[in-house]
Amino acid sequence: MKNVTRRDFVKSTFAAGLAAALPYSRAQGANDRIRVGLVGCGGRGKGAHIPSFEKQKGVTVVALSDPDRQRMAEAAKMVESKYGHRVEQYVDMRKMFDRKDIDVIANATQNYWHGLSTIWASQAGKHVYVEKPLSHYIWEGRQMVNAARKYNRIVQCGTQRRSQSSIAKAIQWIHEGNLGRIRYITAFANKLRSSCGKRDTPLPIPDTIDYDTWCGPAKKLPIYRDRLQYDCSFDWNTGDGESCNQGVHEVDVARWCLGEKMLPRRVISIGGRFVFNDACNVPNTQIIYYDFPTAPLLYEVHNLRKARGSDEMPAFRGERVGVIVDCEGGSVSLYRGMAWDNEGKQVKTFSGGGDHFVNFIKAVRSGRREDLNAEVLEGHISTAVSHTGNISYRLGVKASRKEMHARVRDIPIFTDMFDRLLEHLAAHKINVKAGTVTLGPWLDIDRQNECFRNNEQANRLVRGFYREPYVVPELSG
Q1: Cα dihedral across residues 120, 125, 130, 135: positive or negative
Q2: Are the beta carbons of 76 and 86 closer than 8 angstroms?
Q3: 321 - beta bridge partners?
């Protein structure tokens, strides 16, 4: 573990982590009302962004944008009935960005729209709160960082665990050496997902949706799943799968704990899409090994129940979603806020919450990106880490159990995770010997340049694919 003094830590990570949980005073001369424009009126935009901004003194949502006119109208009606004022509505987000009276863009679009919309908003002089995962491609995330720097914008990534003070306290306690050196971190998401369906004919697009705008940078293709909106997270064209969609939260907390500021040295992924014979194509069962210099990070995804016919979900040490840090002298569950020694005796607990949206507005008022708990650069690195695992998976081939074991047998902790994967598949009556599992290659990473060494296919996925005219520009920071 890198040496981190208590003073250094308190000045940086811990102070930032606690900031959102504490009351704040506005900067002198910064008492004007902050006017917010929301782009993306789905569940996250309507259910989290609007109330989280409206509840703050001096903050008002004044405009909405969404290519789905019906969804946008429902959000506008909610604002009027709940908060007592009307909002303007825009199908084209750029028209909303052009408004000089809007200070902040709340970006609750889907993954594939995050990059271009955030860059457009930054170019228009707006500060941005953008949902996770920050980007759809690694290169795209770096352009978002460059845009924030070039236009001097405050940009917060929606990895809200960064504002949870209990996690900041636990990480400080680990860094102080209370359990010795970090050996490895296991992060996991056991979240039940249902099949997205598989239609014989394309999904009809309602007249209320501007489908060209909805597709934006992604390929404009017919949809053969049952739902247009959220299930787009589980199609590579528009989404990034569970290990990035949910996984960026756990990867971000783990990387924070490790103190790592760059991508891992190498990565490998194994998994597949099992049980569902549907139109989506990302894995619903996946394991990933991120080889960081400080200590390895292992991640696993299970979107299926514990076994065929079971009502339970898999768990790791009693948790369904979490981050567990194994140290020389014990372990810490960062999500649960508990620490144990090597005999299993509980030795410490950590408590405290925080508000990520409050932290963002505080930084907007101060004009200091240093006040953000999840500044765009942090969001970029954590999202990029998650992308590397998926790139290994996407370059993988169906392999036998023997072939898979040969690739991981030299890493005991990853072999243990691989064995759990096999047990899980066996519980669903999946014949691993028949070559049903995808084995990704080990990919060596050029950490400085955020790409892969000697792998053209992998680097094509780093750069990404865009549809004219929705092309992410290359920017210098």
Answers
A1: positive
A2: yes
A3: 189
User: How far apart (Å, rounded) are the C-alpha atoms in residues 87 and 54?
Assistant: 12
The yes-or-no verdict on residue 434 having pLDDT over 90 is: no
**pLDDT value, residue 4:** 43
Instruction: Tell the burial category of 222 from Cβ atoms under 10 Å away from its Cβ (0-12, 13-18, 19+).
Output: exposed
Cα–Cα distance, 245 to 382 (Å, whole number): 12
The whole-angstrom separation of Cα 247 and Cα 257 is 15
- Beta carbons within 10 angstroms of residue 8's beta carbon: 12
Ranges in the chain annotated CATH 3.30.360.10: 164-353+376-463
The whole-angstrom separation of Cα 334 and Cα 329 is 16
Q: Give the span between the Cα atoms of 55 and 43, in whole angstroms.
A: 18
Tokens 């065929």 sit at which residue? 308
Q: Inform me whether the pLDDT recorded for 10 exceeds 90.
A: no
Residue ranges of the chain assigned to CATH 3.40.50.720: 18-162
Q: Which residues contact 84 (CB under 8 A, 6 or more apart)?
A: none
Half-sphere exposure of 125 (CA within 13 A, CB side): 6
Beta strands in 358-430 (DSSP E): 397-399
> 105 vs 89, 378, 455, CA distance in Å?
14, 19, 37
Q: State the average pLDDT for the chain.
A: 94
The CATH fold of domain 164-353+376-463: Dihydrodipicolinate Reductase; domain 2 (3.30.360)
Q: What pLDDT, on a 0 to 100 scale, did the predictor assign at position 14?
A: 44
Q: Tell me how far CA of residue 389 lies from CA of 10, 240, 242, 256, 425, in angstroms.
A: 32, 11, 11, 18, 20
Residue 123 has pLDDT above 60, yes or no: yes
Mark out the alpha helices in 192-231 (DSSP H runs).
211-215
Which tokens go with 286?
A: 């996946």
144-192 tens-digit pLDDT: 999 999 999 999 999 999 999 999 999 999 999 999 999 999 999 999 9
| Residues 332-357 pLDDT 10s | 999 999 999 999 999 999 999 999 99
Four-residue CA torsion sign, 401, 407, 410, 411: negative
Separation CA 204–CA 221 (nearest Å): 12
Give pLDDT, residue 12. 45
The structure's pTM equals: 0.93
Place of tokens 């806020």: 337
Q: β-strand 451-452 against 443-446: which pairing, if any?
A: antiparallel
What CATH number labels 18-162?
Answer: 3.40.50.720
CA 87 to CA 99: how far, in whole Å? 13
Q: What angle do CA 394, 396, 397 make, to 5 degrees?
A: 130
